[in-house]
Amino acid sequence: MAGDIRRHNRAVVLELVRNLGPVSRAEVARAARLSPATVAEIIGELVREGLVRVAGEGPSTGGRPPALVELDPEARSAVGLEIGPRTLTAVVTDLNAAVKVRVEKPSKMVEGAKVTAGQVEAIFEQILQEVPEAAENSLGVGVAVPAPILRSRGTRFDPPSDPEWGGLDVPELISRKFDAPVLVDNDANARALGEFLFGAGRGASNMLYVIAHWGVGGALVVDGDLRRGADGGAGEIGHTVIEVDGPPCGCGGYGCLEAFAGRAGIARRARRALKLAGRDRLGGVDLDDLKVRHVVQAARDGDELAARVLEETGQYLGIGVANAINVLNPEVVVLGGSTVEIGEMVTGPLVRVARRRALPGMAEGTRIVKGELGEDAGAVGAAALVLRELFAVSVPEAVRRTVV
Fold this sequence. Notes:
Blueprint lengths: L1 H19 L2 E2 H8 L3 H14 L2 E6 L9 E5 L5 E7 L3 E7 L5 E8 L6 H18 L3 H4 E8 L10 E2 L10 E2 H5 L7 E5 H12 L8 E6 L3 E7 L2 E3 L29 H5 L1 H14 L4 E2 L2 E2 L5 H9 L3 H25 L3 E5 L7 H14 L2 H6 L1 E4 L6 H11 L9 H6 L2
Parallel strand pairs: 4-7, 7-10, 11-16, 16-17
Antiparallel strand pairs: 1-3, 2-3, 4-5, 5-6, 8-9, 11-12, 12-13, 14-15
């Protein structure tokens, strides 16, 4: 028990130094609601470990000027890997999640678990070539995957929308190349943690993260902690039903949000709209070859049908967000993923519908914002799985307000 309290106090102190530094020990003690002696002891330990450094002196209030301390972001590093259907992205970050090295490869995930395993091994070989010290200096490796990580299956990665894909034990695979702790989570949880600690969710206590890309997912942070549910699958809003008799979804259900607003659903709706309009091409592309990128380009070129398909995508996502706001009542909803990156054609109707459909009191009190971590959100979020072991994700509300 005493050890748990000690670890928690250390994490809170380090979190405050990270957010407030350069800061005096007395200011940290007040913000953390800990005794000056406890804070002085913890900071002394962090300085000896090299995680915190002295950063000059603060203004004197009549006596000796206080020494200021700050995080040394270069003291250690973290490695993050996002396994996606289109790309595999790996980063090495400092303690502030700033990217130092980035490696990206086209994903061959569609070819199955064995091919994906080979790609993961290759990307770690490249990281070790570019940053040989990463293996010794890293706090660990975080991995974000596009599937729930259920406690009943350990760390095995099995995409629910593709039962024939196989399975992949990611930690066992990475440990062949990288001698460090490995943490695995689904991409929504990883991205949510990254945005909460280092991006658009900083300063909040309760945050909903929504990711819209090839699928649709979500993650919830309550009082600073990720909520995973009984078996680790919480947040899968993409598989909430928004139309009882809707189209089939890859999960085996019907009418899921993902069936309308996932990449396959967007392309399907575009093809259907074109057929109803008596058209067999969009922007010079045949219906059978139509991808979301073609719909986006056509909309940007002024095609009204393509623009309407994207607007409907935003509306469907807005319904899903409104439902989540009504159930979860978050302070902020952070939006991420390649579909969100399309821009105002999707996010505009999303926000309008979410505010119109959510209960009035909660709609006005919830901020809906785009994520700040950009295209590296998944990989940086994966690194955050490791970094959050060092910093305090869950801190008292008064402290959380201090670090806004």
